[in-house]
Amino acid sequence: MATKKKTKKSKLQLVKGMKDILPDEQKYWDLIRDKVDNFAHNYGFSRIDTPIVESTNLFKRSVGEDTDIVSKEMFSFETPGKDKVSLRPEGTAGVVRSYIEHGMLNMPQPVKLFYMGPNFRYDKPQAGRYRQFWQFGFESIGDDDPVIDAQLIIISYQILRELGLDIEIQINSIGDAECRPQYIKAIKQYYQTNKNDLCSECSKRLLKNPLRLLDCKVKGCNELAESAPQMVDYLDDDCKNHFMSVLEYLDELDVKYNLNHRIVRGLDYYSKTAWEIIETDESGKLHALGGGGRYDELVHTLGGRPTPAVGFAIGIERVIIKMQEKKVEVSKRKGYDIFIAQLGIEARKKALKLFEDLRGAGFNVVESMSKKGLKDQLDIANKKGTLFTLILGQKEIADETILLRDMDSGVQEVVNFNKIASELVKRLKKIEEKNLKAGK
Ligand SMILES: [Zn+2]
Ligand SMILES: [Zn+2]
Q1: Is 221 within 8 Å of 205 (Cβ atoms)?
Q2: pLDDT of 36-48, one tens digit each?
Q3: Domain boundaries in the chain?
Q4: pTM
Q5: Which ligand does the CA of 271 lie closest to?
Q6: Separation of alpha carbons 280 and 292, rounded Å
Q7: Where are the alpha helices (DSSP H) in 145-210?
Q8: Which ligand is nearest to the CA of 179?
């Protein structure tokens, strides 16, 4: 007997390292978006959106071929047209490409841009770290004045403070092409003589990316890094003065910062100021929520004329986890003013149209047209916290009226159908005035 082949459907689920952002979590995203928009507006940053897909070479040349990000963590593929492309692992490279490509060099400098969007890294997934992760970032391109570094630091600091997090800035200068080579030489020498105490990753890094050794949290490496030579001792006058100015500006501002000679940032393109935004949890463990730095060489490296720049990026999922841990209170979107209830098919037709009319006129309306009973609908109106419910049934249609129910008092009045809008305006205004007086 021939058996039917079993065609069991495999269960479809999230790709490893990916995450859904469900409706319940959206209030955090709304709040962060609003906060970022407000800061951008006040500090004069304009929004830019660059594509998620860029040529792989962009990241090789900017982030650097020897970094973990480019050598191991990129989602890279060839398009049917044989272009080698990657999903962006970070936001700055695309912004700088766009700055050059669209001739923003010829606009008044600095050009101040901000972005918000997903990045992709094929990293080991852990709590709060996903392979698709969102960042927002601010970039100021075209000016090397240390006051701009200080302003970006304060923006990165205050956004997170205003989101309810207790954070501090850790800051360092990593010098520039003039003075950093001497420092790298010193670092190499230092680690060479202590080679036996390094972890296997760092033994490899020592040749290609020695600054990253300062970053390593493995015990032996961690201890070595604490007593390693420090970049501040190798800064030339130009870099030292720049760094001192940044710190002086920060002293004028209400910002908690600490010097940390181990902040080097992982990417090749940084120079001078580098900082991380650190949150300390209840057990005293430190978590970096984001970071920034000056990248004076990057525009030139990517084919533009030499142009100084500085920026930062913050990981949104990690910020939200911290907000949730801290139980930061996040109010939902403003409630609805008016619910439209309907009884019977004719009423439903008329209610559909009324909903469109009121919504179009700018009223904050909500409905549940698929529900039939009045009790069900009033329950929903209550849950949504509406101020008024309009009730339309057979009788009201015949009389060309509508019932206006005050949800607070439960009082219902008959209102002429054609006068609904003006009646609602009048009543909403009264409530607003009352709230204003009560200081709500
Ligand atoms: Zn220098
Ligand atoms: Zn190590």
Answers
A1: no
A2: 999 999 999 999 9
A3: 23-179+235-325, 338-431
A4: 0.86
A5: 1
A6: 18
A7: 146-162, 180-193, 200-208
A8: 1
- Over residues 259-276, the pLDDT tens digits come to 999 998 767 788 999 999
What pLDDT is attached to residue 342?
A: 96
23-179+235-325 architecture in CATH?
2-Layer Sandwich (3.30)
CA distances from 29 to 25, 120, 127, 189, 292 (A): 7, 19, 18, 47, 21
Q: Which two tokens stand for residue 210?
A: 């020695």
How many alpha carbons lie under 13 Å from residue 115 in its C-beta half-sphere? 23
Q: What is the number of the ligand closest to the CA of 205?
A: 2
Kindly give the distance from the C-alpha atom of residue 223 to the centroid of ligand 2, in angstroms, as a whole number: 10
CA distance 114 to 227: 37
The dihedral through the CA atoms of 246, 252, 257, 258 has a sign that is positive
Ligand 2 centroid–CA 205 distance in Å is: 9
99 Cβ partners below 8 Å, 6+ apart? Answer: 105, 111, 113, 141, 299, 304
Does a cis peptide bond (omega within 30 degrees of 0) precede residue 110? yes
User: 429 C-alpha vs ligand 1 centroid, how far in Å?
Assistant: 62
DSSP annotation of 228 reads S
**DSSP tag of 129:** B
CATH topology of domain 338-431: Rossmann fold (3.40.50)
**Phi–psi pair at 128, nearest 5 degrees:** 80, -5
Q: Which ligand is the nearest neighbour of the Cα of 214?
A: 2
